[in-house]
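Researcher: Please translate sequence to structure tokens.
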Amino acid sequence: MNNKTNSTLPPESDAAKPEQVDETRRRLGKVGVAGSGVILTLASRSVLGGWGTCTGSEIMSGNLSKPGEANPCGCSPGYWGNNNGYATWTDQLGKLISNDHAPTDLFKDVFVDYFVDTNTTLLQAVRKEKEPKNLCGKSAGFLQTAAFHAVAALLNASVYGSRYPVPLGYQTPSGVRTSFNNAVANCTLETFVTAVDVYTSNGTWCFGDSHHGI
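Model: Translation complete:
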């Protein structure tokens, strides 16, 4: 995966508005995550001819009158770990990101006790700065990658919800937490990473840039 980012955040688009609610998706989303048996069917998205650039003002506007299919939204782990992503994260986009998911929050308090240093923060996890515990017979590098995807998925679910083009059980912060924790408990981290590593597909947008999430 290539975590390509821009040096500055693009300006927000006043013309872009959130997607019209898909009632079928809303009903299916209530299924959530049950144990390790998650729904692995991706939310239906069109990568051509969609509308919206996934900016903060677009997501916050609450206007659901825009016809057609909205572009999918999601920022890569590399974005959330760099300086631009950190600025977005701490600004919280008008509190779209929960106060429970601050960069300084401990990974073990949001997910599970995963790192050798129990004081590892979410920011350190997404920047791959700390050593994971010996889990599931996986290499330290893979375990770091799984954790940095978990943090990015948590933030994307918090900001974008159903616009985040991942399986339905992963489109809420609680769903991401449950899915990752189950993956650790059941040693199915590959399944988790495959489900949330969507940044090079689906025409994913990140804050006004169709390539920012790649």
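Researcher: Any highlights?
Model: DSSP finds nine helices and no strands in the chain.
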